[in-house]
Amino acid sequence: MADKRYTRRQFIRNLSLAAAAGVSLPLFSSCTKEEKEDFLQKHFKEMTTEEKKNVIAKLEARYLQKYGKKFQISTQEAVSGTLWGYGLDLSRCIGCRRCVYACAKENNNSRRHPQLHWIRVLRLKKGSLIDLENSEHYYNPPVVPEKEYLYLPVQCQQCENPACIKVCPVHATWKEPDGLVVVDYNWCIGCRYCIAACPYKGRVFNWADPTLSPDEVNTSVHYLGNRPRMKSSVEKCTYCVQRVRTGRYPACVEACPTGTRKFGNLLDPNSEIRYIIERKRVFRLKEDLNTEPKFYYFFEA
Amino acid sequence: MNRIACWVGSLFLLVVFSVTSAMAAAEEFPVSPPPMTEGMFPCSNCHAGMEVNRKKRVLKDEHVDIVLHHAESMRWCLDCHDAKDRDKLRLFNGELVKFTESYRLCGECHGNVFRDWKAGLHGKRTGYFSGGKRTYLLCAHCHDPHDPKFKPLKPEPPPYPPTDNRNGR
Amino acid sequence: MDSCRDVLKETWHFYRKTLSLVFSGGKAYYLWCIFLLCIMITGFLFYLKQHDVGLIGTNMTDQVSWGLYIANFTYLVGMAAAAVLLVIPAYIYQFKPIKEIVVLGELFAASSIVMAILFVMVDLGRLDRVWHMIPFIGSMNFPQSLLAWDVLVLNGYLFLNVLIPVYLLVTFYYRKTPNWKFILPFILLSIPTAVGIHTVTAFLYNGLAARPFWNASILAPRFLASALCSGPAIMIIIFQVIRKVSVIEIEDKALFKIAELIAYAMFLNLFLLAAEFFKEYYSNTVHIAPFKYLFEGLHGHTQLVPWIWTALTMNVTAFILFLIPSTRKRLSTLNLGCVFIIIGVWIEKGPGFVIPGFVPDPLGEIYVYMPNLLELMVSFGIWATGLLIFTLFMKVALPIEAGVFSHTEYQKETAPPPRH
After folding, report:
1. Which of A115, A246, A247 sits opposite B167 (nearest CB)?
2. ipTM score of the complex?
């Protein structure tokens, strides 16, 4: 009796599997060559050094073919004794958006279809500071700064207690030992739960294949940072992981013409960011959500 | 006995003061070269043979492109530029400093900012914050000393709105 | 050896029989199946386009990153959970009129869950990476991620709602009494699992501190209440269809009892909505913005306002129709109420729940999301898939239940002629 039931159910299962195969055939044939190559790639954190080398070689060959340039892909780990923090002087931001485009250039963001910016500058009316509902994202006056307005750039706040890594169903995003929240672009399944969970709109999604022309690429990349991404993967600011782990400032810090942006190691008592926290009046966005961002806003005057 | 103590005490104080002032004077920062106009420096090329006119006035013969908008009601050119040696700047107490140390002059009035700048906080930083070459920018690199207020800039374009099907999405 | 061959022969004949059942039917049946197949194929073709060009083919953006697909998913999980509304009176209260039809309800729950899973699958950006979610093979973020919980409970519930009806139907086929000691624990387990799937789905939204519209403790109870309205409502209609096309008798008493239970569930749903209204409008913090967007319009954007008020009107009307015994016991008003609830709860729990969560976005921006043709076609395709699966289930289950398709009938056919 039990045997008969079991084989019957097996038959039903087999038939439905056959049907599923018949449906998936056109699906699989529409997968690109890249998708087929990357199908069985392991999670970055579970790769051995040997496997990482193989993946890097594969990516280098792929980028050489796609962009005609030789990429340097780093997998440099976190430097011990570092916890990266960012400072932003709101009294100096004039809303010129040089940081936005410097970031897009440095980090190989998709330029159009879709246009992905990791930094978003908000224009707020003076008088009620963080009234986000009445903020303007698309201001375009002839010159900035405009008289009655303040400018608030927002990017991934690199929280110590991030909501995004809690909700990711596949551990595609995690917090590195130096405090940076990173994404393994090849592991992300594109469910966009992390975008729903982020209170700062720090994460953006590659809704299509990124549009990045060969003359716009930046060839010094990090696997977890600014390497060219693919369709349907989430991405975000990584404090320029490819730069800071070698001791360089992030691209937005260098691009700002008014010296608004500050960066440093929170664990180093002589760093600029510690100086700011100790001497200036810092605050962080949406502190009541307890995400503990490592992005400190302050006012000089 | 008392006299010796007096002498020793004064000598000690002299040593302390000179050492600390020497330390303050000797604090060096790795700065980029000052942003001089092409061909202007050294100023003594022209000024070495000129007569010094200390009268506060609007310049008509040369340097007419420089319009002072920097505490102009209280000071004029020769309060910062040394009258005798135009290749140097002049501090309050008469001490002369090189153009590569102009921050000492700015810091005399703008002490808070100077303190932040020394810590690497004020102003723009580029390059390496550790393990590599770090460069400080002089005050004059961002603020024109004669007209320091930042000019408004043309902003970069706004992001494509999410409804823009052609380009943005 | 012989028995093995016999078993296989047996199973193959059973299967051929079910296939012949599925392929034989009246004109209406064929037309219905072909109609559904057409919609399915259209939906599939549109999905291929989405798979090719990426999710940019939909109207979703970084601002509103979940849309029609997840709205439908939420609604369908609720529908599936509602099969439990039949299980409780059938098995716990031994209410006989319902006991006979609970298998059909469970098969409906299974079809509903299949649709819900399909909606999540089409919403995923990288379907080829879905194996990353399998525990131990991939890296499932259990127990922190609510989506991981949802994958587990949905598949578990699907398993239960396939196991129980198939077991019961197969025993009916063999004209044996089911081994209650074996199957009753599964049946009883399906009750907390049903509550579980919808609670987990509610928690999925509830846990996001970034979205004040969802970050309310009232979400899980509201989800359960609205689920217990929508699922049984569609069951009432389906049972009437079944009554018509097969010989199975479903007493009116069963339908009226279900409608009564729906009335109580709808009352709870409306009460919880009123509680939310009070909290938002009385405290009047900035978090009222999504609520305003939904019910009044925000900064001039009023796209969702007519939808939600229609839904609310429908829900209240249905509630009244089901509460008053005379309208509840008249089939015409009963069916009207059911249709109202199906549509009203879909609006309230689907687009009327998912979209305001994203408006305004965490940085205060308002993006007006309305699904485009691609999303609509793919959604219709998935609904058609679920309906087709349910139709095929019914095509096999109803004859078994009616006693028309059973082992003794088969044995009569294949029995060797009596020897002289």
Report:
1. A115
2. 0.90
